[in-house]
Structure formats: structure tokens, C-alpha cells
Specification:
Strand content: under 5%
Oligomer: single chain
Order of helices and strands: HHHHHHHHHHHHHHHH
Radius of gyration: 20 Å
Distance between the termini: 32 Å
Helix content: 55-70%
Number of helices: 16
Largest sheet: none
Mean pLDDT: 88
Shape: globular
């Protein structure tokens, strides 16, 4: 009875908290809650279980320590503090998921679908009313032209759930319904980063499951749809202009070898706002989580990149029972390398939970 009650509490509270984190209202109080709540969840679900730290965790701690030292030379301390709190909260969700795999695994995919449907309804509401949602929400538009929305980035990950069910041989109506809904939101979002992310997750699922040959037609049809969406979306907005941020981040190392503090890429982008390959662009964020760390920490950001490589190699080698969450991790990793979605708390929290669920237990 107690276990059923605790599981129900987890489903309700975690879903509610992830929903709040995806609304786009940035607050340090929310991030602090994101640091503490995962430990509360752990003690509710596993009150007698000792917390075990996942593999490569101390490398990530090193990144957090360096990020904190970066406050000494940060150009905007408040922005850096918020960014660091976001990274710490991610670590808390990582530890929580890693230590509660058996209890969290069957619930997280349900939570993701519930959130996807709710955020999708909010996207439709703001689309049809013409109102503007909060800037950092899962369902937010990224420009005044309303030609990019992050709902597709969320569904690039959520779509992997019904696809995985199909690969396992399930033929449920609800899974086909979710696939139709997910493809609609992918197309409506006009997010090329979402298309690339879903493609990466799809390849991972088919490759690791060993079903590439068996479901060859399904895979090729999915690829054709994604290519069509990518080309169609490129007709409405430039392809290379936003990638100038990547070059600016690397060029910024010459002026700021130890970075400008996390969350302060606008300083670098503003100073380098001149034609590069004939293009001029400015942004407050790099739209690439690895280069964001390089911009903030300079050459010291290499530690984060090394950690990212280590955990990526580990996930790529994950066993089949962890396959779905390995695919979700890969999907969001690709997304974080081409968009600023890593600044939305809910997305970074799900990414870290998928990491914890896809890792093998330490011996």
C-alpha cells in the first residue's frame, strides 16, 4: 500500500514540477527546488537505500567547481549563478534517476507523454490566439516571425516512445495516435534542430535494437519525412546565419582565454558582431551546450567537453534494457548542440534523468 502511494506521489509531483519547469518562467527559486526535490523523491521511494554516485560524476563535479570559480571573472554574476544552479539541478536529477531505475523507468515515459500533450495544447492555444508565451517555455516561439517553436524539440524526444513500442512488436492504437500527434508538432514547430534530434534518436533505436533490417521500410519512410521537413523549413529561414554563433564562441577564446562567465555569451557576440563569411549575427546564447561552456569558461571548458564525450561513449554502449532512455539522451544531446533548449529546466532535467536510467550500475 505504501509503495503504491509513494509511486502515485512521484507521478503527480514529478509531472507537476516538470510542467512548471517547462512553462518558461525563469527563477533561481525554481532551480534551487530542482536541486533539492530529487533527493526528496529518492527518500520517498527508497528511504533505506544508500545513494550511489554514477560513473563519471566527479568529472561533472569538476565542471561545477570550475564554473563556480568563473564567478570571479564573470561579466554578469547573476546570469552565471542562474546557469550554475541549472547545472547543479541537472546533477541532482541524474543522481535520483541513477539510484531509482526500477521505480522511475516505467513512469518517466508516461510523464513525458503527459507533458508533451499538455505543452502541445498550450502551443496550439498561443498559435491560434496570437498571444506570446513566456520566452523560455517548451512551447515558446524563438523569434518575432514565429517561425520556430520548441514544441518540436520536446516531441522529437517524446516520439521515440511510440516508435520504441512499435519496434518491440506492440500494435496499440494509442501508439499510432502519439506518432501522428508527434509528427504534427514536429512539422508545425519548423525546428530543424528537432528534425536532426529525432533522426539521431531514431538511428540509435534501430541500430542498438538490431531491427534496422526488419523495419527498414519504416526507417526509410521516417528519414524521407524528416528530410522533406528539413528542406521545407529551410525555405522560410536561413540555414547558416545562426551557426555564426559557433564561430564567435571559438574566436572569443582569443580575447577571453578563461571565458566571460557562464550565461554571458552576449558579451562575446556583441564584440564580434561583424561580418564573418559575409554574415552578421548576434545572440545572447551560443545555441550549442559545449561551446556555451567554452564561451563561459574558456579553455577550462574542455573539462565539460571531456565529460560529455565520456558519458556519450557510455550511453552508446548501454545494454538493450536501457535502450529507450539511451535514445532520449542521444536525441537531446544532438538538440543541445544545435539549439538553446538546454536553458529550459525541464529539458535539461529529462536529459539528465535519461542519462541516469541508461547507465549501467557501478560495480
Amino acid at each position: 500500500m505504501f509503495e503504491r502511494t509513494s509511486n502515485l506521489i512521484l507521478l503527480i509531483v514529478l509531472t507537476t514540477f516538470l510542467f512548471i519547469g517547462g512553462l518558461g518562467f525563469t527563477s533561481n527559486y525554481l532551480l534551487i527546488a530542482g536541486i533539492l526535490l530529487p533527493f526528496v523523491f529518492h527518500f520517498i521511494l527508497s528511504p533505506n537505500k544508500k545513494i550511489v554516485l554514477p560513473k563519471n560524476f566527479f568529472l561533472y563535479v569538476a565542471t561545477l567547481v570550475i564554473s563556480s570559480l568563473g564567478l570571479l571573472w564573470s561579466r554578469d554574476v547573476s546570469s552565471s549563478v542562474s546557469f550554475i544552479l541549472l547545472l547543479i539541478s541537472g546533477a541532482s536529477f541524474w543522481i535520483f534517476a541513477y539510484n531509482n531505475k526500477e521505480k522511475l523507468t516505467p513512469y518517466l515515459e508516461r510523464i513525458i507523454i503527459i507533458l508533451g500533450l499538455i505543452f502541445g495544447i498550450l502551443f496550439l492555444y498561443y498559435s491560434f490566439t496570437g498571444l506570446w508565451p513566456p520566452a523560455w517555455g517548451v512551447f515558446s516561439f524563438t523569434s518575432q516571425y514565429r517561425n520556430h517553436n520548441h514544441i518540436g524539440d520536446f516531441w522529437s524526444m517524446a516520439l521515440l516512445i511510440p516508435v520504441f513500442a512499435l519496434i518491440k512488436g506492440k500494435r496499440r492504437f494509442f501508439d499510432f495516435f502519439l506518432m501522428a500527434v508527434g509528427l504534427f508538432f514536429l512539422a508545425a514547430s519548423l525546428s530543424r534542430s528537432a528534425y536532426l534530434s529525432f533522426f539521431a534518436g531514431l538511428i540509435f533505436l534501430f541500430w542498438k535494437s538490431g531491427n534496422m533490417g526488419r523495419y527498414k521500410k519504416l526507417f526509410l519512410a521516417s528519414v524521407l519525412v524528416l528530410i522533406t521537413l528539413f528542406i521545407f523549413t529551410s525555405l522560410f529561414k536561413p540555414t547558416f546565419e545562426t551557426r555564426i554563433y559557433f564561430i564567435q564562441s571559438i574566436m572569443g577564446l582569443g580575447r577571453f582565454p578563461f571565458g566571460v562567465g557562464l550565461g554571458n555569451f552576449s558579451v562575446v557576440s556583441g564584440l564580434l558582431q561583424r561580418p564573418i563569411f559575409g554574415l552578421v549575427s548576434y545572440s545572447a546564447y551560443v545555441h550549442n551546450i559545449a561551446l556555451e561552456m567554452v564561451s563561459g569558461l574558456g579553455i577550462l571548458g574542455i573539462i565539460f567537453i571531456y565529460w560529455l564525450i565520456r558519458i556519450s561513449k557510455e550511453v552508446l554502449a548501454c545494454p538493450k534494457q536501457n535502450l529507450l532512455y539511451g535514445a532520449i539522451f542521444v536525441c537531446f544531446l544532438v538538440n543541445f548542440l544545435f539549439d538553446r533548449t538546454y536553458l529550459t529546466p525541464t529539458l535539461i532535467w529529462i536529459w539528465f534523468m535519461s542519462l541516469g536510467l541508461s547507465q549501467e550500475n557501478n560495480a
